Amino acid sequence: MLAEVQGDPPNPDPLRRRCCGCARKPSSRKAQKKGTFWGIEVAETLQWRGWELGKEVIKHLVLKNVHEKTQKLSYRCPSTRFFITVFPQPIALSPGMSLTLPVIFRPTEKRDYEDSICFQKAEGEFSVTLRAVLPHPCLSFPAAVQLPLCAVHSATETTFTVRNVGDLTTVFAWETPSPFSMTPEHGVLSVGAECTVKVLFQPKAAAVCNVIATCWFGVEEKQKRTMQLRAQAKYPYLQVNVPGEQHKGAQPGKLQDVLCFGSVPVGTSVEKCVEILNMSAVDAPCMIERAKDPLLQDHVFSCDVSHAVVPAKGKLALCIRFQPQAVGEHSTDYFTVTPTGCLQQTVLKMVGSCKGPLVSLHQSSVDFDWINLGESSTQMLKISNVSDVPAYYQFDIDGRGSVFSLDRPCGVLEGTTTLVLKVTFRPAHPISYHRRVVCLVHHQEPLYVDFFGTCHSDTAKPAILQARHLSWYRTNTVRGLTFYPPDILSVMLKDGKLLMDEKRALMLLPEIPLDKPPKEYTEASSMSEYFYDGISSDLALFPPHVSVSPREHDFGRCVPLCKAEPLPLCVTNHTKGKITVAWTPSYGSAFQVTPESCDIPPLKSSAFRVLFQPTQLNSLYAAELEGFAFYKVLRQYSNIEEDATICPPWCLTIRLRAHTYEAKREHFIPQYLLDVPKTFPPVASDTDTYCSALLSNTGTSMITFSVNQAACPSVLVKPHSGHIMPGGHQIFFLSTRPVNTVSQQHILPLQLNSYPGYTKEIVLRSCAESLLLLLEGDGKLYFKPVCIGTSSTQRYTIKNCTRLPMAFTWKIHLSDSKLLSVRPAAGLLQPYEAMAQAWTFTPDNVTKYLLRAVVFVGWESPAPVSPQSIHYNLRIIGEGALGTIRAQKEHMDLGNVLVGNLKDCSMVLLNDGICSLQYILSVEQLITGLCDPEEVCSDPMALELEHSRGTIPARSKAFVRVTVRPARQLHYTWSISYAICTPAVPDLASTKAEQHPLCCIEATGVHPTIRIAAACSAGSASGISRLLLWRLLSLDTLNEYLQRDPAPSELTYRVPTRHSTCLIPPIYTPLQLDFNFGAAPIGSEPALVMLLLVNNGVVPVEWAFLFPSDQKMDMEHWAEDANLSPRELHQMRIQDNQLFSVSPKSGKLLPGQEEAVQLSHRHDFVGTDHLPVLLKASYGHEILLNFRGVTVEKEQRYVHFASSKHLLTPIAIGTSHPPVQIYELYNGGSTTVMFEVQLDSITRVQKDNYQHPVFICLTPRGEIAPGTTGHIEWIFSPLEARTYLVDVPIHILGGDSALITFQGEGYDPKATGESATFREVLSPSVLLGSTKLTVPGQAASLSHHRICFGNIPDRTRASRLVFLNNISEDKAVVFTWRTGSVKDNEVLQIAPEQGVVQPRGSTPCFITLQPSGRVSLYSADLVCEVYIQESLVQYERDLQEWEREKERQAVEFTITEQDLRETAHLCEPSAVVRKYKTLPPVKNHPAANQPAGHLQRRLLSSKEASHVWVKPEPPRPILLHLDVTARSHSTEDFFSNFTSEFPKYFLPRPSIHQVLFVDGSVDRNRMEKDPEWLSLATASKEELQIVTDLLIGVIRDLLENTQFHDAVRRSLQEPIPYFSQFQREETAKTQHRGQCSTIPSSLSASPDLFTEENGERKETSQESSPSNDVLGSWEGLSEVLRHEQLREQKMMMKRQPAFGSLVEMVLENTLQNILVEASCGEVVLTAQPKVIALPPRPFRSLARLRSQCQGCLCRREVAADCSLLTPKAISSLSE
Q1: DSSP run (H or E) holding 1248
Q2: 1000, 966, 973: which is closest to 1098 by C-alpha?
Q3: Residue 1380's pLDDT band (boundaries 50, 70, 90)?
Q4: What's the CATH code, domain 666-769?
Q5: What digits encode the pLDDT tens for the residues 211-266?
Q6: How many other C-beta atoms are found inside a 10 Å radius of the C-beta of residue 1765?
Q7: Architecture of the 1195-1334 domain
Q8: Membrane-spanning residues where?
Q9: C-alpha closest to that of 565 among 576, 581, 573, 554
């Protein structure tokens, strides 16, 4: 393991540099560090060590020139007297040469010395340090050591080197704080020696350790040096995982800690690996040990590894071995993985089961029927092993001495195989035969099969034995009837003492009082039948009918061969009938029974002898003798009267052994394999347990065996003795009955080959199991406080501490069953298995609970539940409490979320109670905004909770991750509620009454939106107005669509990407727009369009203009399609020549941010260019823009039509004054064009509408200048509420014509209830625009690009203020306003029309609109031509020089001889031959009337330039377009439709004559009816000019004619005609008021009306006499009357039109002045007004009556004392 060791800090530079620029190169020699200074290589330090006082020590300083040039330098001697060198002198070193300079050191005392030698060169100075030091100790080691990460309670180490770099031998000792230690801690280092020190880090807790270790060194004087030791300790965290298949019941995705081996064959071992995962960053030493359990358990699980180290963030494979021993046993064990320090334990559970063979016989009996004596019969017997475990089987029969024999009586049956055995029947006597043969199987219970058959002879023909007889016999045996011979049973049957049941089995007569059913035969277990035979044990299933004694006998050594004593054999008849015993002769066997047959009376015995006749010495003999006993009456079938009385014979067997080995002769050594288990299978107390053993003979000789049963009487072994043929095997079954739980050892001596020396002791252990259940926590279960109504689940573990499966059942008191439950309540625990049960506590009150539960255990399943049964008590302690949940923030606003994107936040839930709460969250969604409620109600939930249910511990909080994903551009509101999870409310399907509001979350789904805020043009498109440009680019439709929600097809590719494989990419957008760049002649400047993109949304947006090439994927050449369509070729030509360009093509806009985009179209090729460009907003709209531009030939007349269809503004039917509307034409050519409108279709429409002029063209012909826009005026007057269409041909003289469809819609305002059409002057998306959008080279800008006056009454004045800003820093600009047409000049006024704006200055311009009396829709393009003042001055200067030169050339000339000769070649034929010739003429530049471009400027050739001085061209202006829109209405229409807006406008009242002439209705009627007026309206410009000139001449003559003036004056002074008195009173009053303003009266001329002194009226003295008082009162009254008359005169003056116009002009000029002053900063319109307190008025003694007249601001003061006033005066005052 590597450690990071930091080195010593660098020593200070011994050289003292005197100047900069020295480049030092370290030398490669380690003995002496060298440096290079300006090409001189020299040692940096000379050091003296080991010097003595009184002696000189000389060292040499070598200087070497490593430069390629000769170096010159000088030096200064050391400053002290202790270092001496030669006298300084100049040094010159050739390249590669060296110089040795001796330095002598002369010490005078013992101390350290230091000095230097300074060398000087032209480049600078450098020095060499001279140092002499005393011998001193010095150790060198790293300053800091970093140790690797270490686990707590573990250790890590690293090493470092300590080196003695001093001059003395030194000792060292380390002082190291815990948890670090050093090895060795102390030592001795000689000079130059070094040693390796190991640092050991042994942390006891997790921490970052940063300590200082101190090293003391030195002999006489102790010195110290420190080292920093850094290390970090972390806690290890280990987990166990079982790779591969998941355990049943395990949760997917989690680590598995249960290792399942499944079923493993008995006697085999299986290994599986588990992973120990180290989740920490440190290596983790750990111990693997078995969990503590009783010592009696035979460990079937084992692991060879007990200690290991798991690498950091790694894993360790651990092999576990499973070797089961007992078939059918389920094994469970636990291993614990404990890190060093026992910080935490990880438990690995291992389960497995043992499987053995599963052998079965296909039939339970083999029937040989009957054969004759001397014959044999063979039948087949199938034996199968359905398990995959090999099975050892053995039929317990000796075929050599039996009438039944098998071809393979023993063998191995492989897994899942079937073996067919041949069974042969060779009878020796004419009797019936039956033998029940046991088939022993190792690791399985024995199997039984019945062999039976009958033998007939000539004289004896017994009854044929059949399978039914065996069944009846077993039933009769149970009923105790087989001890009677068949003849007696027949008699009893005849006498009625016996009956037959339904199966024809015999039965005794039933007893009358007790109605019990007869006994039936039941199959006993094979083990019980095998052991309880009355021979091997004292117990028997049924009493024997015939017994033989002994059943086994060992003759021992029989030497000599002839001295073998016969064995007396006793056969006893236990029946009540006479029986016959017939022994099967064993031919060739050494054992014989005499006599072969014999009859035995009832209840009597008979003696037989077994003779042993060996034939060979030193041999082993073993055999089994077979005999059959039967009722003698069965010898002849005729003796049998009833078939049911037939009783099968009983088989008698004797096992015999003997040997003929001599006394001193060793027996054959047996070769065998013995498979014996170590322990008996576990059982309950006083229960039999069985196991099997296998003894295999692997030798070539027979083996005899004998088990000394008397040596271990507690264990039964069967068979006790026998023999095994070579290659065969013997299966033993052992049985014992343990009575207590103390382990008991059993030793069985097994003697082989009848020799005591070949005795094998079989050692087994047995132990009875008692019920033992381990409860966790000493039988106590604690619950945390639980909210009432809710439930809490706790894990509680119970463990089976026995080797047997244990059944358990929990019982809870009925009163506690509603509060407490357990799952599972009953079950089965496998041996040593621990089960975690789920206990649920559901309190119903706020109180503390102490509950009790009982678990009953037993070996049977289910466990018996009774007080006498073994049980364990469990105490449960819990508490009920109240609890609620609240949100930390009751309202959360996530703001704007991109539609389709995710945004998450954390919702903090707080639980302030003492109990944990399990909650269920529910969400309700509310979508609001401009949407259909029924449509959005079916939307899926746009809010997703990370988890909708969970648990919050007491006094804590939980975090719930909330993710929202809005699907619409609407406002979302989610109300989150919670319900406490109770048994009544298990899931989200709870009732609303259980829901509690928690919090509210809001979010707004938004799309990334952009819009076009402004657009302007330049280059060849500079003459296009902004409104026309807006329509050409379809920006209204584009902006309107950009505000909608994107279609799903537009989101196919959310971000700009290359997705097309062809040159023309597929279209996914539902909208396609035309981007029309207009038209221009070839070679013109490119048409530039500047668009201002604004992010009007609330989220950032990324946009891009994608050309077809930007959407195509890069493909290999072989994949490209070589056949290109004309459209593809056209697009490739456009892209290759870059006819269309966009800069920049992409960008990102933050909310509210703007960016200008420049689009251009180059006019390099004649024709129409089309290019589809995709405007893509990431996660938003995708719009296809069809870029279109037209290039025409020079001098070609071309009018650009924006579209072939024009929509007129809808007009209400019945409108008396329909407005004039405009259709625009743009001249994209270089010459003036004439257009003419063909009116035939309009005439047809008028004829179809009852001669009503629906469409009226006011300008049927006209001309358009190059690069400008022409207007065609239309009047649309619908007759019905419908849509009108008319196709109008527009002819271009000398050019192409176009058919334009004009569409107008008439509507009924009463039916629709709207007058909104009047209000729609501009489309909703047309705004004022942004002033930030400028074209390249623009020096000035307007504050507004569009002005909308809205709806205004006719003949009123409306003004707007526009500022012209000079954006240049240092150049003044000159501006001039011009309008597009004569009509615009009449209705629009601009003040000032021209001027100069200083740098960074601005000029206010007032735009005034005054309709001319004809209702119209005004759309004017005001153009402000801006020039740089410097360029104009330069132009004027150049022009003056050109004019002076022109004048000079007019009077000066030069005469040459050459001119005389050239005179004859003059071009003019009529020219006179002159001797003299003038200078080259001065002439104007031939300028074509077309837009100038960089490719079209006519440059003069050098030859022409030398002869012609071209007139200077004026500078090209910068055109600033100002669009003015308005709609004028007649006064009646405006008042009826815009009543609230009417008071805002000043309506000038014309005179009577003007009213009669200018009245709109009269004028409109005359215009509509008078054909001459229509002809005048359709007149050409030249005709109108003629009429205008004639009228000007007439009016001028009238104004200059004095006689006309006198006649007019006389007509005004004529008396009033007599008939003028015949008029209405109101008219007379009106005329009187109108005359009052002009005719003076006596009252108005009276000078007494305004008699005042110092601003106050004179007051009458109160001290006058009473008569004077009355006179004064009358005078005061007259004064009041005079004031009243004066007031009436003022009111009449105010009603005059001239007065109103004057006031309006004053107010307008005042407001304009205020705005101008405010723009200059001299007036602050938003400042707070100042309040000035006026002094109080002086007190007057005379109380006055104050009254104020209506409509006047003057006041009259009348004396309060009115006692002397007459009633008439009072009444006049009241009036």
Answers
A1: helix 1240-1248
A2: 966
A3: low
A4: 2.60.40.10
A5: 999 999 987 778 889 999 999 999 998 999 988 766 555 555 577 888 899 999 99
A6: 19
A7: Sandwich (2.60)
A8: 84-104
A9: 554
